[in-house]
Amino acid sequence: KFYRKGATHSGLLKTAQPLNKEAKDKLRDAWEEANTGLSNAQRIATFSNIEQQALDFIQNTLSPILIQYEEEFSYKVFSFVEQKRYYLKFNLTSLLRADQKSRAEFYNIMLDRGVFSINKVLELEDMDGIGEHGDKNRVDLNHVSI
Description:
Layout: H1 21-35, H2 50-77, H3 80-83, H4 100-112, H5 118-124
């Protein structure tokens, strides 16, 4: 059955809003035209959601494994008393950079609330600071106590 379909998998098309039969047929036909036939054979796949796939890999594959490593290392490296004071933790911040939109939203929130300075954000992005004025944490006037 797999080879009768040209060695391609069937899939699922999902839309944000319900479609009538005519719209469903048009969508299915457009999908099949773009992805089947000799002219589309051996084409390179493109991934518009590669950032989400990378994030999914970090959260669902890498993180559980690293948590096990952290616990095992802490158990074997530190004494019982030291385990109350010290711990080992993998820093996944650089791996989470794949999701640019979420990172930008996070930085905006941290800047608006005065948690991060502009230079701190630039440092996290491996960029040069803007000078001493960039070290000041700021909040807008909507967050100032009256």
